[in-house]
């Protein structure tokens, strides 16, 4: 371990000295290096650090978004796609870099322009994900697995795993992606999609509507309780799992169609192929959560945040969130701050600056209701 670290350090010194081309490559991990070494390396590569949050888009009208400037294209080798059909689609249409590696500002702009997600919603999701899955030094995150394109990573225990990384943001009981314990945690799963089709046929009249969403959510919950001994349905997954069942109705239905019922072949296009239908228009007006639909889905069954306690069919409440029947915003905020601290126990220098700025950016989404936590003074 020490030997490897010394080797890396030797290569690093050579590169910083600018003497030799053979050196630490920009995507090599900096794990094992000391703080000074990391700072030295950071000084030698392009450290962008955190950037300000982009402003809300002004025009939130109905608009053609599968347009001439944003055609669907198949993947090129190395392109990253992951568990989020929204971001996957934006990347495959060039609203995000087609590589699937992007800055928080690019993600915020893309979800607003491409789908009309509200600025405040985009802010919270983007910075939560970026803090736990992104690279604070280069300001880049993969929407799929880890990628060389995000540049050199800060030292372990930081991970910079991208959105496919299990347990930080990505979690269990997804609609179309398997639990990490049971299979592939980020690719479209046909078996799961067929279950969604069956439910939509049974209670949605052949479409994915709020009734179908409620039953899909419950069926996926029950399946994980029955088959995944490591099933984790506590926060933050508890909070994201319900909202995500509404997103398809909010964002994947053409803005000219006011039905709140999503055609299943259109849904497959987004979820499987990261593809908008021909002539697709984004929704009219920004979408900031869908309170009514959320309540309908949340209240259709008796949910509480918890986990399978070491074996299947052993779902218990998470004692920490006991009594938190609804999604508690401040606890959720605190949870993401805590995960950030676990990944970056004692950051210094440019790394600390970048983390602090991103924590400030994330807090903007909670400033009206929570007290700010400052873990890295
Ligand atoms: C704002 C930035 C966004 C980030 C960082 C993000 C990230 C993620 C992640 C990590 C997941 C996986 C969670 C899991 O199922 O375990 C996910 C799921 C999902 N996202 Fe996004 N997302 C964003 C915006 C959007 C948008 C704009 C849409 C729709 C247009 C969307 C639609 C969905 C849906 C439908 C799922 C659930 C997939 C499933 O359960 O099979 N997301 N997202
Ligand atoms: C989830 O997917 C990512 C990306 O492929 C993979 O690196 C990771 O090992 C998976 N997580 C688990 C727990 O299987
Ligand atoms: C897809 O989902 C089914 C049902 O949960 C599961 O049995 C299968 O292993 C999954 N496939 C992959 C590749 O994860
Ligand atoms: C979903 O569609 C079915 C079949 O048309 C309908 O009975 C049900 O009321 C719809 N659900 C909602 C919430 O509109
Ligand atoms: C989980 O199981 C262990 C071992 O049986 C037990 O001590 C603990 O109380 C359980 N936790 C909860 C929250 O039920
Ligand atoms: C966050 O960490 C603090 C300090 O360890 C702890 O007191 C608190 O309960 C944690 N909160 C969450 C939501 O995990």
Keywords:
377 residues; mainly alpha; Chloroperoxidase; 2 domains; 3-stranded antiparallel beta sheet; two-stranded antiparallel sheet; 12 helices; binds protoporphyrin IX containing FE; binds 2-acetamido-2-deoxy-beta-D-glucopyranose; metal-binding; metal ion binding; Cloroperoxidase; iron; peroxidase
Description:
The structure is a single chain. With 377 residues, the protein is mainly α. It folds into two domains: 1-66 and 96-169 and 328-377, Orthogonal Bundle (Chloroperoxidase); 170-321, Chloroperoxidase, CATH 1.10.489.10. It is built from twelve helices and nine strands. Helix 1 runs parallel beside helix 2 (35-44). The longest helix has 18 residues, at 210-227. The relative contact order is 0.14. The structure holds protoporphyrin IX containing FE and 2-acetamido-2-deoxy-beta-D-glucopyranose (5 copies). Residues 145, 164, 166, 180, 185-186 line the site of one 2-acetamido-2-deoxy-beta-D-glucopyranose. One 2-acetamido-2-deoxy-beta-D-glucopyranose (NAG) binds at residues 204-205, 209-211.
């Amino acid at each position: 371990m020490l030997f490897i670290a010394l080797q890396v350090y030797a290569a690093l010194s050579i590169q910083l000295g600018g003497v030799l081309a053979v050196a630490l490559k920009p995507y090599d991990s900096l794990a094992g290096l000391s703080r000074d070494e990391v700072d030295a390396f950071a000084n030698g590569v392009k450290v962008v650090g955190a950037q300000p949050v982009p402003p809300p888009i002004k025009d939130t009208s109905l608009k053609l978004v599968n347009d001439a400037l944003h055609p669907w294209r198949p993947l090129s080798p190395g392109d990253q796609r992951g568990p989020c059909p929204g971001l996957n689609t934006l990347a495959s249409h060039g609203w995000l870099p087609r590589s699937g590696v992007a800055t928080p500002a690019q993600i915020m702009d893309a979800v607003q322009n491409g789908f009309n997600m509200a600025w405040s919603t985009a802010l919270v999701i983007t910075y939560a994900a970026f803090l736990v899955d992104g690279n604070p030094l280069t300001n880049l995150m993969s929407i799929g697995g880890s990628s060389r394109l995000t540049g050199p990573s800060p030292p372990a225990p930081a991970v910079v795993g991208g959105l496919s990384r299990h347990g930080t943001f990505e979690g269990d009981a997804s609609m179309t992606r398997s639990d990490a314990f049971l299979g592939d945690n980020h690719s479209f799963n046909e078996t799961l999609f067929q279950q969604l089709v069956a439910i939509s046929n049974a209670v949605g009249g052949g479409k994915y509507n709020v009734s179908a969403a409620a039953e899909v959510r419950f069926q996926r919950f029950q399946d994980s309780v029955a088959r995944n001994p490591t099933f984790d349905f506590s926060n933050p997954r508890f909070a994201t799992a319900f909202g995500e069942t509404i997103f398809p109705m909010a964002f994947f239905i053409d803005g000219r169609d006011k039905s709140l019922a999503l055609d299943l072949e259109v849904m497959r296009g987004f979820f499987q192929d990261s593809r908008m239908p021909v002539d697709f228009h984004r929704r009219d007006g920004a979408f900031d959560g869908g309170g009514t639909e959320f309540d309908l889905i949340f209240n259709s069954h008796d949910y509480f945040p918890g986990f399978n306690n070491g074996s299947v069919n052993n779902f218990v409440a998470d004692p920490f969130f006991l009594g938190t029947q609804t999604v508690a915003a401040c606890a959720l905020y605190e949870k993401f701050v805590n995960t950030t601290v676990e990944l970056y126990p004692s950051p210094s220098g440019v790394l600390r600056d970048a983390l602090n700025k991103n924590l400030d950016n994330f807090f903007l989404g909670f400033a009206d209701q929570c007290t700010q936590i400052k873990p890295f003074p």
